[in-house]
Amino acid sequence: MTQPAGHRDKPLPVSRRDVVTLAIASVATGVAGLPRPAKAQPSPEAAVASATGFGPERHGMSAFDDLAYPADFPHFAYVSPTAPKGGTLSQVGPATLFNQNFATFNSLNMFILRGDGPQGMELTFATLMRTALDEPDSQYGLAAESVAHSGDGLTYRFRLRPQATFHDGTPVTGADVVYSIETLKRSGHPILSQSLRDVAGAEAPDTRTVVVRFVAGRPRDLPLLVAGLPIFSKAYYATRTFDSTTLEAPLGSGPYKVSRFEVGRFIEYERVKDHWSESLPVGIGQNNFDRVRYEFYRDRDVAFEAFKGGGYLLREEFTSRTWSTGYDLPAVRDGRIRRDVLEDDRPSGAQGWFMNTRRAKFQDPRVREALILAFDFEWTNQNLMFGAYTRTRSFFENSDLMASGPPAPDELKLLEPFRGKVPDEVFGEPFLPPVSDGSGQDRRLLRRARDLLQAAGWTVQNGQLRNARGEGFDIEFLDFEPGLEPHTSGLIKNLRLLGINASIRRVDGPQYQSRVNSFDYDMVTRRYAMSSTPGEGLRQIFSSQSADVPGSSNLSGIKDPAVDALVQAVLSAETRVALTTAVHALDRVVRSGRYWIPHWYKGTYWMAYWDAYARPEKPPRYGRGVLESWWWDAAKAAKSGVRG
Predict the structure, then answer these.
(1) Where do you find CATH 3.10.105.10 in the chain?
(2) CATH classification (class only), 34-296+616-644
(3) Distance (Å, rounded) from C-alpha 314 to C-alpha 449?
(4) For residue 94, which of 407, 517, 529 has the smallest C-alpha distance?
């Protein structure tokens, strides 16, 4: 999920975890061996299922047999089963999926590479199963009422609910699910098509049954990913081209459907009254708003002004300056606007400036480390961000998946085959970004950076850093809005002291997305929000096979056999302990590569909203829970003077 970057905390996988955090990352251990299935609720019968026969039908599945909810659970614990329906949730979306764009949209097809999709389109499609936001990776039946798998974990059978229908009243059938899997594997966004390459095939023996087959050695979490895919109508696309940009609202089966929109400005989704999922355990207390509206702004300061005027009603604040100084408003003082700080127990992931190693100037790790040394986080945090953040050190920051200290014995077993092929530091303390003196221009760190650049063959000539061929060192920071420019400018000042000609290049949203998709940049900012159970998404971010796939999440262009092997080790983990061990090993190797200039993180959500909403006292552990569990409070709205 991608989330906004900048000193807002930033983006892939996504705030909606029904799509299994798929583009955001999953991992495991055991370099070889068949991965265990993502399993249904554990049972003695499952243990004796034959390799070709199916075990018992179950109501859910998870990566490591650790479902928290029993088969007869009434609803998720983080929802209110009596929450009323009504009102409007309006917001600037906090995260993107696939081709979605923070700043604009020009197509309603979010599942392909071309075009810029609007946030929220995923709400219009049902999935086989829905993720529980209070568990690391568990899923429970949505369009599918049950799932069973073969003993070897290579075949899964889903039974569909007879009440599952598309918005035109036609039933969701096995043929529709098969069409969806095959179409996304063939023509979907590269993040999807690459993730589905280990799906061997899918068949529909009858209208209510889907059988999905996987190749041997498939990633552990691939069945979970498949269960979180959108379900398309095969009949609808019989007369349309799936992989084309379009402003025709597609036929969906989810709890919302497209209502009004104005290209590039807003899109509104209307709740489907009496939707077939409302009374299901995975649907009770959720999707409570009659309308969900996303607003699009090209400038976050303009967006904030619109919020203050009631142009939209809920805002996750990503800008520390605004959170600290911008809310001294009459509406805040008199209680019409509320501000809440919610705990965020997800791994904070990695945010930073990512260097494109496909370009020759970034291929030497000494050069990349020199660029890391030039960023004075301590000065930036105190002077631009009110001391609100902590330095990011790892792709798995703020979780037990982050490596620390020397490798444990089990980590060493995974790392030893690569001794001499990876930096020696991998076998000691993992790399940490430097701590500056907070001056904004730490001479000690800049001297170290200069020495590293010189060792890599770059010398200063007439104030300009040049290589042996006399070529200058230029860096362009690509962005689509100005929110990060003060932070980037501080780094640029230090880079220029080193003789590097650095600049900011701001383009519009579609051009930005196009350039990122084709790897046409020196540096871009991104936040990867990692899963608590990393898996297939890691290939998208780290593996050699994704490095040259247009639209992939491997922004740095990492191509390292050690990284590839450790990603596979993560995907093959058979227990959570083994998974954690493999992620630690992977984290050490990736950090040793110096592929990014780390930014910052915080373990909370800053939520500001007009006082028209209510929510359960206890939010879900692994998400904001706004769409999933909040509701419109008509009495509060009337008192605050806002309308839904």
Answers:
(1) 350-601
(2) alpha beta
(3) 43
(4) 529
